[in-house]
Amino acid sequence: MTQEVQADIGLIGLAVMGQNLVLNMHDHGYKVAVYNRTTARVDEFLAGPAAGTGIIGTHSLEELSVVLQRPRKVMLMVKAGAVVDSFIEQLLPHLEPGDVIIDGGNSLYTDSNRRTRDLAAKGILFVGTGISGGEEGARRGPSIMPGGNPAAWPLVKDIFQNIAARVGGEPCCDWVGEEGAGHFVKMAHNGIEYGDMQLICEAYDFLRRGLGLPAGEIADVFSAWNRGVLESYLMEISSEILGYQDSDGAPLVDRILDAAGQKGTGKWTGINALEMGVPLSLITEAVFARFLSAMKEERERAAAVLRGPEAVFAGEIQQYVQALQDALYAAKIVSYAQGYLLMRAAAREHGWHLNYGGIARMWRGGCIIRSVFLDNIAQAFDADPDLDNLLLADFFADALAQAQAGWRRVVARAAELGLPVPALSSALSFYDGYRSAVLSANLLQAQRDYFGAHTYERVDRPRGEFFHTDWTGRGGKVASSTYNA
């Protein structure tokens, strides 16, 4: 047992993300000790990627705890859920008050809420941190979103901020908030990521099947867009994917099966939006689009039975390319606005103190949704930290006003051509609903009162007063209790 060597931090879980984070920490001068449940992987790592680095391999949690400087800092990069809880229980006998456990996986934020409280009662500090950027980000600099016990932040701040991506000299990492705030913000990030990816895919489909452009030309279109307001990592890689050729010179993308997978964080985002009453329509549609794509065999059967429009595109292609750029930009604004509505609702519910401009700055580098667009979001919240909705910021309100003609044109033309654009169209519906002082929910409330005596409010009386009508003359005066689920 190598007790004489004192490591700055220990990491458990040597899959791709864990290994690359360890190497990143080593590059920045930190002494790291590692452990893996399958201990042979420790030896393989030390003999392979970590050869000659001085990274410390351990073969038990006791050995790991011995080589760590006090207060100990142990980072878990293991499967979310029961595996995290299992490792925490195994670690506790080897830790002492003031030590820090860090969960760097994609954990559900409610688990991080619970772990923060439970470990605090035992004198252990917990950090639940979202990490975005994939394999390359972990190795060269990810976006890191830590939350949990605030007392832990001074102990991990330097390591996290030194290994994170940097934009304009600023680290893409700062303290997010209490308990599960870090993992909630990472979940919101992943939901926005789902939305961004779906919007780009709908633009691709419109250009490919709607306008009839080959993959190589679409790659050029995306490359051009990536030099303007749509500049982003996802736009960049989409252009590269579309330009990539198979061994026979054909576009490889045309040979990839159109059935999407997912790991569940986008679904969590939608579920939490429903539970908190937030209209996260675009991101939820992006999740549903993946579900629909997975029904490949059923869709093939339906294609032989169900008819669509006979229309074919006729018009000026370049005009629609410009309109599509506007549509994509406008819908992207709505997607982020919805994501921020969800974070604001969670902050109210859990008493978190989130820095919304700071979150945008953390996302500018390292992470999957990094884009030039995030600077504008940070500036909007810097100007008004209490901003109710991004759409109300002057910059975004003006951008939507300029883009909406093309946006509406694309959504309408897609419907005429029979092309599904659930994210683009749901974003437009949200925009039109949000800017409407009057909606049709007056009739809906009347329907609820008619069949269930659920009551309604009146426009000619103060908010908070509820009324019931005996619509049929047979219902009486008794009303249902009023509440919002």
From TrEMBL:
The Enzyme Commission number assigned here is 1.1.1.44
Gene Ontology annotations of biological process type: D-gluconate metabolic process; pentose-phosphate shunt
Q: Where does NADP(+) bind?
A: 13-18, 36-38, 78-80, 106
Q: How does it assemble?
A: Homodimer.
Organism, by scientific name, is Desulfurivibrio alkaliphilus (strain DSM 19089 / UNIQEM U267 / AHT2)
Residue ranges occupied by any 6-phosphogluconate dehydrogenase C-terminal domain in the UniProt entry: 182-472
Active site: residue positions: 186 (proton acceptor), 193 (proton donor)
The UniProt entry, under Pfam families, shows: 6PGD, NAD_binding_2
The record's catalysed reaction(s) read: 6-phospho-D-gluconate + NADP(+) = D-ribulose 5-phosphate + CO2 + NADPH
| Entry keyword set | Gluconate utilization, NADP, Oxidoreductase, Pentose shunt
Record protein name field: 6-phosphogluconate dehydrogenase, decarboxylating
Asked whether the keyword Oxidoreductase is assigned, the reply is: yes
Cross-referenced Gene3D superfamilies: 6-Phosphogluconate Dehydrogenase, domain 3, N-(1-d-carboxylethyl)-l-norvaline Dehydrogenase, domain 2, NAD(P)-binding Rossmann-like Domain
State the superkingdom.
Bacteria
Signal peptide: which range, if any? none
Residues at which substrate binds: 106, 132-134, 189-190, 194, 263, 290, 448, 454
Q: Which family does it belong to?
A: Belongs to the 6-phosphogluconate dehydrogenase family.
| SUPFAM superfamilies registered for this protein in UniProt | 6-phosphogluconate dehydrogenase C-terminal domain-like, NAD(P)-binding Rossmann-fold domains
Q: Which GO MF terms does the UniProt record name?
A: NADP binding; phosphogluconate dehydrogenase (decarboxylating) activity
Briefly, what is this protein's role?
A: Catalyzes the oxidative decarboxylation of 6-phosphogluconate to ribulose 5-phosphate and CO(2), with concomitant reduction of NADP to NADPH.
Alphabetized InterPro entries for the sequence: 6-PGluconate_DH-like_C_sf, 6PGD_dom2, 6PGDH_C, 6PGDH_Gnd/GntZ, 6PGDH_NADP-bd, 6PGdom_BS, NAD(P)-bd_dom_sf, Pgluconate_DH
Name the pathway: Carbohydrate degradation; pentose phosphate pathway; D-ribulose 5-phosphate from D-glucose 6-phosphate (oxidative stage): step 3/3
